[in-house]
Design brief:
The protein is of the alpha+beta class. Helix content is about 30%, strand content about 35%. About 15% of the residues are buried.
Length: about 80
Amino acid sequence: MCLSVPSKVVEIHDDASVTVDTLGVRRRVSSHLMTEPLTEGDFVLIHIGFVMNKIDEKDAQQSLDLYQEIVEKMQLESE
C-alpha cells in the first residue's frame, strides 16, 4: 500500500519538473507523466518522484489536516 501526502506546486521548471512543498519539505519532482498543465498553487499526489495527478485544494487540505491530527496523537502517545 502506498500513502501519498498532498504536495503543493511552488515552482514550475522548463524541463517538465516542478518543485513541490510537502508538509514544509521542498523537493523537485518530474511532471512528465501529467497530461494536463500544472500551475503554481496546484495540489498534486506524487509516487516515486513523479506527479501522478492533481487534486482539489479542499480534498488536499482535508488530508493534510488528518495527517497533522495523526502526528499530534503519535506525539502524545510517545510522551
